[in-house]
Specification:
two-stranded parallel sheet, 14 helices, 6 strands
Length: about 500
Amino acid sequence: MATSDTADKTPQLFGHPRGLTYLFTTEMWERFSYYGMRAILVLYLTNYLLLQPTIDHVWGHETMKRVLELIFNAGNPLGVQPLSSTIYGAYTALVYLTPFFGGIIADRWIGQRYSVIIGGVIMAAGEFILMAPQALYLGLLFLIVGNGFFKPNISTQVGNLYKAGDSRIDRAYSIFYVGINVGAFFSPLVCGSLGEDPNYGYHWGFFAAGVGMVIGQLLYIFALRTLPQDRIGRMKTAAPAEKKPLTASDWKAVIAIVLLCIPVTFFWATYEQQGNTMNLWAQDFTNRHLIPGVLDWEIPVTWFQAFNPFMIFAFTPFVVSLWGAQAKRNKEPSTVSKMAIGLFLVALSYLIMTVAVWVTGEHGEASWLWLLAFFAVITLGELYLSPIGLALVARVAPPQILSAMMGLWFITSFTGNLLQGYIGTYFSTMTKDHFFLLCAALAFGAGVLTWLFNFPLKPILAARMAENVRQPEVAEPQADPHMEPPPAL
């Protein structure tokens, strides 16, 4: 919905409503909290918590272990690394599922502001709960539930700061996205360093993540006076035109989005190995000395998790410029073709790791430069797929069910992360080159499927975009990632 005219009369900062600065900073600290915890979770599980006798004291572990073994391994026992992979996969999957329901609760009952506050408080509590090893699953549950309230309702408020058709919205979401990646960049450096330092330990890494969440919440509460009316209030004056039944064109757009959800699931299943098996590769199979024999300082394992967010905001201007130059020559790839290219790049990133294994041997230590190359290529793949997919849904989904279709798109992150956890169980049972080839094959196959979809879907999507059936106003659930590259690209 468009905001009221008063939105234009609110105090401005750098050419945008002042509320954008607060939302940017709030999201930055929330992402600091999330990615800080994510950077150390698998290392915490495999190096400490899942090792005996520590595991005897984790509440509900035996029940959870049996459930995960039943789902991911046909009831057969899982070793430490496969079990940690399933826990990580289930957690990251549910983090992307609960926002769908959190958005519904906010829209129908409590509004966006209260949802962000409730979610932030629950998430902060979850980080602090994780400091107690026995409360692992309780802490993860708090983070999953809290994220469900927080995530879909912080990003919608960015669009609500502007009137429908305001060209500044694109730039606003790009600015907001910078906050996501600034937080994601610094969190492994802070939380990861504390977690890996034997003088502190993993619980202090969780503590730092919790402090970041508290800071973000305090900033948000302070900012409430600068933020627009909740959607729950604006819906009371919704125009009758928004309730029109779906047309044939609408249904074609829905079918197109549903079909594209299939290969996108495999994108997340391979892309999200970064925080799981690639973390273990960095720890156990990588020579992390900066310049061996010259500068022998060892890069902390968790610092590799900062490569991707740094590269996102470093590469984005070049990727956007490339698309602009291609557009001038009428050679810019179609939306679906860009998504296929993104998947092919993910496949290439795992082929790079396969070569790293062949060069150094199965049990050797590969140079950290191989990981640098891996993250560079997979980040380019992300920029070609993730923001493009979000923008596609925002532009072609019927306005009557926009939130539902965006929620469906985010469900691919849920299914993809479940699959990611399952794939990760093979990291310790397959040879490493075969594991990386498996990931490459899955991404490549999904890329081929996406490319084939381009032929029947291209005219449908082009016609749909040309209809301009709605204002480019909010595209409400735009942020993630992950998330995630800027949906406003």
